[in-house]
Structures are given as C-alpha cells and as structure tokens.
C-alpha cells in the first residue's frame, strides 16, 4: 500500500544551516500520526517545509503526496492540492475580517482546482453550520482575523478552517499549546470529527497530553532532524515517564 | 475694537516676509525632506483668470450633496458656485469689500515661519471666507473645488478663511482637478474654531501629473473644539500639506489622518505643527503611506507642549509600506515638552508586508498577488476607519481603494 504522505530521506536547510537530516516518514490514508520531540529537534521546520514556506530549502530527499512531489510548489499550490497546516501561533491580521478571509481562501482553492466558487449566501450557510460545532458564532466571524482572539479562539478558528477546506492531509503544529483543558477538549473534538478514511493527519507536539484526546495510530520521536524511534500509542506514555533524554541516548 | 483691517496691508506684510525667506529649500529644517526650491520653476508666472466652462466628471466628490465653491486658476468663480441657502452660513469673496470678520481672520495669529502661506496671501488670485453661526450644525458639506486651466505652467494662489461660531459644525470638502498644464497650486487656510465647534476637512490633494501642490493651514482652536482633517494624496508630482494648529484653549483637539498612495516619481509630504498652548489639549496624528516605484512620503509631526499645558494628550504614528525597490519614507516626529503631566507618544514602522501574514494567507490557498493586495488593503483599512461615516468620507474611501487597484495593476 502506498502512503498518502510519503517523506523520503528529507534534508532541509534554513539559512544555510541543516535542520532536517534524512527524515523518513510514511503516513497512510485514514491514519493519524504524532511526532514528538525535544525543542530544537526540527518539528517546526518539518511543518513549514510541508507547507512550502520560503526559506525552508529542501536540499535532498522528497515529499510525495498521493504519489506526487510537493517540493518546489508554492504554499498556495499545496493548499489547493489539499495540504493544510494549522499553526502553533495563528497570525493576527487586523483589517481583514475572518469571514472575508475564509471565503477568499476557500474560493481560491476551489478556483485552483477548477471547481465552482461559492456565492456569498452559500458560503454563509456553510460557515455557520461548520462554526456551530466549534462554538464559533457570527460575531466572531465578523471580527478581524485572529486579532484580539484568545488562544482558544485562535485554535478553534484554525480547526474551523480545516473543516471548511476539507484537506486531504493536515499538519497540526503544537495545537495544544496555550489551551486550557476545556479549550483542548473542544479543539480535539473538532479534530476527531475530521478523521476520515481518505484523510491523513500529522500531530506535532511536545507533550503527550494532546494524545489523550486525539489518539494517534502511531507515534514517532524526532531528534536531531531524524526520526529515531517509532511505535504505537504507548511510546508517548513512555516518553512522558522517562523524558526525551533516555530515548535520544538509546538511539545514539 | 472694530477697526477695519485692510487686506492690502496684510498682503504687503506677507510679501515682505516672503521676500526675506524666499521659496523654502532643504537647508531649512522644516523643509529638509521636501526641497521646494529645487522642484519649482522660479520664473513661473501667475495664472491668468479663466472664464470658460469647467467639467467636474473626474472629481471624487462630484456625486456628493454639497454646496460647491469653484475656483479656476486660483480665482473664485461665484457664478459657477452654489452658496448655502441657510442664513446661518455666510460665504463671501475674500477681498477689500469683504466684511470685517473675514479680513480680520487672515493671518490673525502668526504661526511662525510659513513662507508659502505668505506667498498665497501676497499673490492671492482669489479667495473666500466662510462663517458658520454659533449653534448651527451644517448638514450639507461645503465643497471647495479647484481647477487649473492654463496652457503653460502657471502659479495659482488662493486663500480660504473658515470661521466657526460656538457649537457650530461644518464639513469642508476639498478637491483638485487633474487636467490642465502642471503648475503650482498654492493654498492657505485660516481656520478659527470657537468653543465646541467641529470642522471636518476631507481633502484629496490632486492636480495634474507633474503638478506641485502646497497647502498651509493656520488653525486657531478654542475650548473643546475639534479640527478633524483627512488628507489623501492624488495625482501630482509633489504635494505638501502643512498644518499649524494652535490649541489655545482648554481641551482643544486636532486629529489628522494622512493617506498617501504614491506611484513612481510622486512625493507627498504631510507636516503638522501642533502648539499645545494651554492644558488638556489633544492631538492625534496618523500618517500612512503605500509607496510604489521610486516614490517618497514624508511625515513630520512637531508637538510643542508649552509650560503649564499639563494634561496634554498627544499621539502620532507613522506607518509606511514600501512596495517599490527605490521607495523612501521619512518619518520625523519631534516633541518639545515643557510641562510635567503629559502623555506624548509616537511610533513609526516602515517596511515591507509582514512575511508571517503573507505566508499564512498563501498557506490557506490565496495566491501571492492576491494575498499581497489583501494585506495592503488591510494596512490602509486602519487609516480609512478613522474617517467619518458620511457619504463624502465613503467617496474618499472609494477613491483610495481605486488608487490602490491602479497601483497594483501598474
């Protein structure tokens, strides 16, 4: 079986400095994988590289999505193909309302895929329905994007985007950071609702707490720019108990 | 005292002062970033009167319900103007036959060195004086529209007096025709706001391509009165809008919003000199520019807080978006504070669009060009939100967004 997302021996440099040094990872459709790792292991670099951010230079290896390489594609092209990155710190954009942003983004993706864009009324119905389960009302949608949103509101807005865009593969970068338990539950329910046989997800997290709520099919440990250990759900619990040091040492 | 003021005497004084100062140049500190002497043809003749018809199709305020005062080549054209019907608003030509209040308001309180205002008086082709009676809140704006109709570059000097009585309110619209030969449009305003008066001044500094536009506002603002001015750059090679506001009674206020969207070769300077003469005055200056090509914006905010002017609340922010490689933005906040209990803030941010925001929009599928346009509009939106919620302000907002589209298409 070919994986939905297949990362092969990936080498990435940022500002001339190697960060990812031969990372390989395959995630089949329908599965949720978690990547855990200490600070500085390359977790954020991996998420930005998958999304195609400028300055994250792939110097070796490949990223295949549905068998096609993503390397060299612009962020907007990857988004249209179905790659979604939920940011650890969603950006505040005063002057653009959340509603306008969501509609522009959704229709830009549809246009790139040759699909019919939604008109204002269709879009409003859709976004209201999707927002309801995440406790996002019209009031919040009328506010400027993420500007003045609480940590929980920002993460809920990210998950709303994910449910609107219906990506084929989602990367969630430290989605649990800055959330209290109630917000974490709400966000996790949103993510779990989006688990689907044709969709893959990658959770990037420092703490195993998130994995109590979004239970992964596999857990990988990232250190020094490579996956040093993979296992099931129990690997996260082991990490929680013994810390990263021991596993890193054992792998060295 | 009811002594009559001879306009001729004021003109002579202004001519003397200008003869000593000459056209301002870069070695004068207040004009360091805008070298008018280098930009201006010293031999430019005054424009001759123009008596022909005027079209106003391209005027962004043309569709707004307003009383319109028309100027051609600097001369007031009463026969083309529509005067306010309400007796509470007086509009008269500014000449020796004008009533005493009109002539007395001209250059009444000296505001330091204002050479171009002196020139506007000394060589005045025409002018008007507007007075609104106390307690009268004018519903219809007064629209000052200026056209240049010379075949060759010529100078057009005009002087405008606005006197608002206690509790009076007026909206002043100002626009400039973009046809005709480039030259110099030089305006000066004398504004006198009595207690609790509000003057809203919405200006589109236009002119033909290659034109030089200079305006000097001399404002005397009394207790709790507000001068709320918005200046939007239009066509024209060089524009400077200079405000001298004296907050001479308690709780006097001035609020400035400057929006300059400039294309290749344009230079726009907005300069404000705020004199907090007594306590509890408020000044709020926002300079925003979007600069394409090799254009340049200048934002100068000089705040003087005199001894005893405690409770002064002053803020200014300068933000410039440099889209063009050779674009330049100069921000010069100057604070001179002689009182203890004051709040005076200033901040400046000059640069490209935020890389994080740009990535975020693109990662959501919005193509780079569109993402840049969205962020640029969002940048301007913060300035546009400061304008009032009136049809005239809507027209101004539409004008700004249209200029933005043209800038992006270029």
Would you kindly provide a brief summary of this structure?
The complex is a heterodimer of chains A (252) and B (410). Chain A is of the alpha/beta class.
Please render the helix and strand layout as text.
The complex is a heterodimer of chains A (252) and B (410).
Chain A: E1 5-14, E2 17-27, E3 32-36, H1 43-51, E4 56-65, E5 68-69, H2 75-81, E6 83-86, E7 93-97, H3 98-112, H4 120-133, H5 138-142, E8 144-145, H6 151-165, E9 169-173, H7 181-193, E10 200-205, H8 209-213, E11 218-223, E12 226-231, H9 233-251
Parallel strand pairs in A: 3-10, 3-11, 6-9, 9-10
Antiparallel strand pairs in A: 1-2, 1-4, 4-5, 7-8, 11-12
Chain B: H1 7-21, H2 36-39, E1 67-72, E2 75-76, E3 89-93, H3 100-104, H4 115-122, E4 126-132, E5 142-147, E6 155-164, E7 169-176, E8 184-193, E9 198-205, E10 212-221, E11 226-233, E12 238-247, E13 253-262, E14 267-276, E15 282-291, E16 296-305, E17 313-322, E18 328-337, E19 343-351, H5 355-363, H6 368-384, H7 391-409
Parallel strand pairs in B: 1-5, 4-6, 5-7, 6-8, 7-9, 8-10, 9-11, 10-12, 11-13, 12-14, 13-15, 14-16, 15-17, 16-18, 17-19
Antiparallel strand pairs in B: 1-2, 3-4
Helix pairs in contact in B: 1-4, 5-6, 6-7
What does this structure look like?
Chain A is built from nine helices and twelve strands. Chain A has 252 residues and is α/β, with parallel strands linked by helices. In chain A, the strands form three sheets. Chain A has a six-stranded mixed β-sheet, sandwiched between helices. A four-stranded antiparallel β-sheet of chain A has the order 2-1-4-5. Chain A is globular. The two termini of chain A are 31 Å apart. Chain B is of the alpha/beta class and 410 residues long. Chain B has one domain (7-352). In chain B, the strands form two sheets. Chain B has a ten-stranded mixed β-sheet, covered by helices on one side. A nine-stranded mixed β-sheet of chain B has the order 3-4-6-8-10-12-14-16-18, with helices on one face. In chain B, a hairpin with a 2-residue loop joins strand 1 (67-72) and strand 2. Chain B is globular. In chain B, 55% of the residues are buried. The A-B interface holds A 51-54, 74-76, 78-80, 85, 87, 90-91, 93-96, 101, 104-106, 108-109, 112, 161, 165 and B 354-357, 359-368, 370-371, 374-375, 377-382.
